[in-house]
Specification:
The chain has 307 residues and is α/β, with parallel strands linked by helices. The chain has 2 domains: 85 residues; 192 residues, 3-Layer(aba) Sandwich (Rossmann fold), CATH 3.40.50.410. The chain has 7 helices and 14 strands. The radius of gyration is 22 Å and the shape is globular. 38% of the residues are buried.
């Protein structure tokens, strides 16, 4: 039986519309860190970058270093309020780091308290004031509730709405989740924090530091916390710093590396197929040269309001 004229007319009208819809593109951007594997690496060009989004190669439209007038940065230090008070010995290095950030950078200081990020210093360009706001933690075992609750709270209530700025967080914590005490990479609170940070476009760095209480000194808690933090920082394009199974002697080498990373970040832009609602898109970024390593979020938000 031959198709009717009305059916043929419907197909002729519908096919071009479908093709046009599938061809719509949504521009997205993210922050990528490029570090030399040894010595100093030559700056990468756009043609050196290979990007895969949702397992499909995409063309890079923007590749711009965050330097000079384009250095836009919002940086929050998030300290575990259950940390051992010996952490105060590290505050001088941390204060010097904050004051060394570019003058245009906005800096905030918050503490993990009862599942939220409690700011003692809102975002400010007065870096000396931010450094002075650092205080000894309360040192109450379990007072943070969970470091991942606190990160989710920060991501959902980020104290700025400027989408042009980099959003970066340094978490100082033991990383252990008392609400899900057995080690599990699928810890729902960790996974929620990763998703919230990726949706908010936040890069997370971590410095492992033990909490108060004898329980925090156990090898199990240390190993679990470090593994969870490593998973979190890798997923958001950041890095975890630690020194064996104990507290680090000094934050200085960690902060020097972090400072170098902030100086070697690029804005990466490309387009993905349009989608009606905002959703997370898998992302892989590589360079076709071997003298650098690249860190990027494993997923970024695209579509819907993100357009």
């Amino acid at each position: 039986m031959r198709p009717s004229f009305s059916l043929l007319l419907f197909l002729a009208c519908a096919l071009p519309l479908s093709a046009q819809s599938s061809g719509d593109q949504t521009p997205v951007s993210t922050v990528v860190t490029v570090m030399p594997k040894s010595g100093e690496a030559a700056p990468l060009r756009r043609q050196n970058i290979k990007v895969t989004a949702d397992r499909k190669p995409v063309e890079v439209s923007t590749w711009r270093p965050f330097q000079g007038q384009n250095a836009r940065l919002e940086f929050v230090v998030l300290v575990d309020d259950s940390a051992r008070q010996s952490i105060g010995l590290q505050f001088n290095d941390l204060a010097n780091f904050l004051q060394s950030l570019p003058p245009t950078a906005y800096v905030g200081v918050a503490y993990m308290q009862n599942g939220r990020a409690a700011f003692v210093q809102p975002l400010t360009t007065d870096h000396a004031q931010a450094a002075r706001s650092l205080r000894q933690p309360l040192g109450i075992p379990g007072g943070n509730a969970s470091p991942y609750f606190c990160l989710s709270d920060l991501a959902k209530h980020w104290p700025s709405q400027d989408p042009r700025n980099r959003r970066e967080v340094l978490m100082v914590t033991n990383g252990f989740d008392p609400y899900y005490p057995r080690y599990d990479p699928e810890d729902p609170y960790l996974q929620a924090a990763i998703t919230d940070a990726q949706r908010a476009g936040i890069i997370v760095y971590g410095i492992y530091y033990r909490d108060t209480g004898r329980f925090s000194s156990s090898m199990y808690v240390t190993d679990a916390g470090q593994n969870l933090l490593a998973q979190l920082t890798d997923a958001t394009g950041g890095k975890l710093y630690w020194q064996g199974l104990s507290n680090p002697v000094s934050f200085r080498p960690f902060l020097q590396d972090l400072d170098l990373r902030l100086q070697n970040q690029y804005e990466l832009g490309f387009a993905v197929p349009a989608r009606p609602k905002a959703e997370l898109v898998d992302l892989k970024v590589k360079a076709d040269v071997g003298h650098v390593s690249i860190s990027a979020p494993q997923r970024i938000e695209a579509g819907g309001a993100a357009q």
